Structure formats: C-alpha cells, structure tokens
Amino acid sequence: MSFTTLMYHEIREQSMLQPDQPSPIKVRQNYEDNLPSPLFVSLEHFEEQMAYLYENKYHTLTLAQLIEHYYHGTELPEKSVLLTFDDCYQSVERYAYPLLQKYQFHAVAFVVTGWLNSARESFQPEQSVCLTEDDLRKMSDVFEYANHTDLFHTRTGTSVSLMMEVDDQELSDDLDRCNANQIIQAKNVFAYPFGLFTERNVELLRQKGFQLAFTSDAGKNLPDTDPLLLHRNAIPYFVDLETFRGMVD
C-alpha cells in the first residue's frame, strides 16, 4: 500500500499572498534568505485541502506507524497521508494548528533548532518569522517534532547546501545538537534541508541509526521505497483541489 507525504512551509490568507514579492526569513541564527513563493499556500486552499481529507476519511499517519511499516512490515491504514511542515514559521501556529486540531489530525514539523527565536513576536505577514520552543510545546497535541538540523539549513549556492559540503563529523555533530534539544521527539527522523543532499549524507544518517528521512522529490511512497529517501509533495499556492486530489488519491 502506498501513501503520500504532503509538504507545507507557509500559509497566508489569499489577500496577503504576494507571489511576486520575496519573503525574507527572520530566524535566531545569523542567516539571511528568502522563502520562495511556491512554498506558500493560501489559507483558503489549505482549509479546502484539510476538509477534503477529513470528509473522505483519510488517516493522518504518525512517524511511529511509518517506522513499524518499513522495519516490521506492519500494514498502514487505508487512505493514509502524512502531513509535514518545515521550518516552523508563525503561520503554522496561526493557521495550520487550529484547523488540524479541529479535524483531530496528526502532523509532523521538521525543526531547525538553531532558528527557533528566543522571544515570541507578533505575526508579520510580510516576513517568514520562526516560532519559539514554547510555541512548539503548546502545539504538541497535534505535532510531533523531528530533526531538520541545528545550524546547517543554509544554502551556499542555488543547488548546494552547507550540509553537502561539510565533512561527516561536522554534520554528525550538528545532527546531535539538534537532537539534544528537548523539543525534538523523533530523534531518528530527518528532512533534508532544501531537499538537497549527497549519497554520503544518506549513508551518514544510516550509520547514525536514523530510520526515516524525507526528500523534496514528489511521488508516492511504496513499501519498497528506501525509508531514508522518502518522497514528499510540495503544495504551492497555485495548486487547485483537483490537482491536490490527484496527489493523495
């Protein structure tokens, strides 16, 4: 049985969406970047998508269920989907959390622990502002949190990330720093920053005992998919409901 993993980053009300304008990130780490517009989804579309999953009786998976599936052959529930959110921006709390709570859905957030801001800030729709540890704790009835590096979610080129360039010991130390944060519950689950990685990165995860790792490559996940190369489908602002249905059905 296959399942689809959905990948979200930022949510904005339709009236706030400005696809032609860069959205600078605001994080604790001394790193500047812009979040591309295809990583945004409108609140209206997101509500429509979650309602579709609920009305069609989709099961939102936990990471434990996936580990049981890939390592012990346990069957997944019918019509399974995994909901994931990367980087933990303010809109996850403002928009996603209440809707997921309403439908009693489960979700995974991949946390860049070095990005979590020290103090809570008011919502800033023109920027992508990271949440705090306390914000994440308050959402733990819906979200479980997994490793997205501590300080290695940085780009050094269009298709190159810092993680791809450092040696294995540096990457190993960063993964350990992320896992040392008490907010990270799933310490054996990882999402590749920007979906960029090398075979050496994958093998290091395997050696360190990681059991699941998620790419940004679209597609269904099958029982024989490498659990350290799992597919995820980004849901950009221009995806309509018909296209969304084709991803999950």
Architecture overview:
By secondary structure, this protein is of the alpha/beta class. The protein has helices spanning 43-55, 63-72, 90-102, 133-137, 162-165, 168-180, 199-207, 241-248, and strands at residues 4-8, 10-12, 23-26, 34-35, 40-42, 59-60, 80-86, 107-111, 128-129, 143-147, 155-157, 160-161, 186-191, 212-214, 233-234. Helix 1 packs parallel to helix 3. The longest helix is centred in the first third of the chain and has 13 residues, at 43-55. The protein is globular, with a radius of gyration of 17 Å. The model has no long low-confidence stretch (mean pLDDT 97).
List the helices and strands and how they pair.
Layout: E1 4-8, E2 10-12, E3 23-26, E4 34-35, E5 40-42, H1 43-55, E6 59-60, H2 63-72, E7 80-86, H3 90-102, E8 107-111, E9 128-129, H4 133-137, E10 143-147, E11 155-157, E12 160-161, H5 162-165, H6 168-180, E13 186-191, H7 199-207, E14 212-214, E15 233-234, H8 241-248
Parallel strand pairs: 1-7, 1-15, 2-5, 3-9, 6-7, 7-8, 8-10, 10-13, 13-14
Antiparallel strand pairs: 3-4, 11-12
Helix pairs in contact: 1-3
